[in-house]
TrEMBL record:
Organism superkingdom: Bacteria
Name of this protein: Peptide ABC transporter substrate-binding protein
Positions of the UniProt region annotated as Disordered: 1-30
Length: 84
């Protein structure tokens, strides 16, 4: 039997090297913004409808902000999406 196949028990085993660093295998995150523009009633209705469908909590949306058009407001939802 050849000596080269007998393990050296005095050496500490080296952990295997990963081909991809752990950060590359985990999903990345990308910021997105969802914007709703319309009348105050229309924007609020849309936010509440999206809440009922499980899209976002009502409190996650920004307060209504006026636009340059009279009677029109907007609200923004900011999210971090996982990109695979």
């Amino acid at each position: 039997m050849s000596e080269e196949f007998i393990p050296d028990t005095s050496e500490t085993p080296t952990p295997p090297a990963f081909s991809n660093p752990p950060s590359e295998s985990s999903p990345r995150r990308e910021p997105i913004k969802v914007l709703v523009i319309g009348s105050p009633q229309g924007v609020n209705n849309t936010i509440h409808t999206l809440y009922k469908r499980g899209f976002a909590e009502v409190t996650e949306w920004s307060p209504l902000q006026p636009t340059s058009n009279p009677g029109e407001v907007m609200s923004v939802l900011r999210r971090q999406l996982r990109i695979h």
